[in-house]
Target: Methylthioribulose-1-phosphate dehydratase
Amino acid sequence: MHEPTEARVRDELAALYRLVAHFRMTDLIDTHISARVPGTKHHFLINRYGVLFHEMRPQDLVKIDLDGNPVDPGDADSQLVNAAGFTIHSAVHAARHDLACVVHTHTADGIAVACQRDGLLPITQHALRFYNRLGYHDYQGIALDLEERESLVASLGRHKAMILRNHGLLAAGSSVAEAFVNIYYLERACQAQVKAQSAGAPLVFPSEAVCERTASQFERPTAPIYTQRVWTAARRLLEPDLETIE
Model:
């Protein structure tokens, strides 16, 4: 399979920003999504700070290296990125070359679950997608200290999703499509948990064996086909915006 071009990744990443906006997972100009530039381990694309997610275009994505330096020429404003976003995303891209895209959100339900001692509970099928496959990172303040990158990576481990305690959610994937699927279902799992808890009734927990079996089912060999179908279908939600995204 041919590696995608930078132009293709820019197009997909801009679409992902708009889908995150479509599903109401934004927080004004804060939070961020990044994608590795094809053919390099040291460059990635991330949003220009100040652009709303529903406005995102391929040309609004800034290419930077793992030291935070802009790769392409431009004035300071056009190259401005969120400092905490750089810390989080550079940490993952430097350590996890198997991951091509990283999404970080501050949704109300994601933060609510991130504030709970037991984190994401294995009470829904969506949550079981992440059973024993979810990292947890303790809050250390706004992620402006580059030294936090080491502990961020340690907390993520070999997983593709993580709860940042008292903060929000992080999901990643080997492609933009997989990162979208992971953040979508992680968010939905958090939404369902908060609603189930608010009902006040006792919660039903599947057995550990059922939880593990279900998680394994999500890793079946056909999973990449499903992921691509979801991504293709989700992009159709943006069709009225296609002229403005190009």
Summary: The longest strand covers residues 168-173. Residues 6-239 form a domain with the L-fuculose-1-phosphate Aldolase fold (CATH 3.40.225.10). The mean pLDDT is 95.
